[in-house]
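Operator note (shift B, R.M.): manual run for DUF4040 domain-containing protein requested after the automated queue skipped it. Running by hand, logging everything below so the morning shift can see what happened. Input copied straight from the record, untouched. If output looks odd, do not overwrite the archive copy; leave it for review.
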Amino acid sequence: MTEDIYTVAILLLLPMTASMLVSQVNPYNALVIRGILGAVAALVYAMFGAADVALTEALVGTMLSITLYAVAVRSSMSMRLGVVETASSECPGYEALLSSLRTHLQEKHLRLEVIPFTQTSTLQTALANKEIHAVFMVPNSENSDQLTAPTGDLQIRVRRLYEILQAKLSHELVNLRFADVETANLSRGKGL
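Run finished. Output pasted below as returned.
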């Protein structure tokens, strides 16, 4: 009788852990819960006499999926910002902008990865080819009023990143614009 209670309790851990995994917002916490889910699944298999399946689940299923998921989370949870190499020297508020971007992105568990480019044309090409998520451009110094103008222009091609930063970034720091590269690429393709 008590053995049945323990069996039912362990069996109930499986759907409970799975629901915790599905409802998790933080990808790193989800990674840990995925490991727990695999351990519980291996325990259930072992309880019902399938030791070989339990071992396979523990070694291949759980370990491999956690490793692949960790690599995917690490590589996809970053915003790649393209800048011209001279932006830090040309722009007085550049460091403040980067600091503000890092702060707001960390709230969403994202990293900021700054990618330097030598020319503005290669920067725009990288944005169009989806090699980077956003572009920071320094405005022409002769056209801008240093007292009232923002530090520069930030073009973002990912709508969700644009929505997050539009609500958070100070308009004194940067002009924020959504760059619809999908439409631009389609119109360029039709013109050929």
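Quick read of the result: The mean pLDDT is 84. The first strand starts at residue 78 and ends at 84.
Leaving this for review. - R.M.
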